[in-house]
Amino acid sequence: MPASYSPQLYILINKEGIKFGFCYGHHIDDKNEMVLSALTKEKFILLKKSLDNDKDLCFFNSANEEVTARPEKLFGKDERIIIKTDKDIVDNWSSSSLLIREFYKDNIPENIEEIIQNTLFNLKDFFLSLLPINKIINKNESDPQPLTQIHLDINKIKAALNGAGLHTSDRLILRLVGSLLTKPFVILTGLFGFWQNKACSSFLLCG
Length: 207
Known about the structure:
Layout: E1 7-13, E2 17-24, H1 33-36, H2 41-53, E3 58-61, H3 86-92, E4 97-104, H4 112-130, E5 135-136, E6 145-146, H5 154-163, H6 170-182, E7 185-188, E8 193-195, E9 198-200, E10 203-206
Antiparallel strand pairs: 1-2, 2-4, 3-4, 5-6, 7-10, 8-9
């Protein structure tokens, strides 16, 4: 499913700093099932759990601006929706809702990688609950298409990488595969150098 038609877990770095967390894609509106279903009992429990597990996770709703219209900006605490009761979530939930953490460039902690991983992992169950795993939406057709499920064998992927002379941790492989399953377009960046004595450089990987 194209990212702009689905919920997203994202990391965005801009001139002001870094923000990361959950948002809906640009082409999702307030009447979309993935927006309305977030307030049903089972999924709302997962949403509340994410907020309860991370007190620094901020709830924003950019109802007056498109979510994707301000990637160069941080929201700032003044725009945060303060949650005192469940009603504060229900009354403000829409396709413009965001669950994010953000840091200005002069205040980024040294353990930012750990914070990002923990934040996205905390949102994982809620995010996955929203995905229509039994269908995909084809923007060129009016009817949903059935989703063909395949068995994913991480060990085969690891063996193929090892066979190509690329040796890395199982955790990194899982993160890469998870990224490709979420959005089949992943950019891997880094300095030119050597990885386990094999020449490598920045490259782009498309699924």
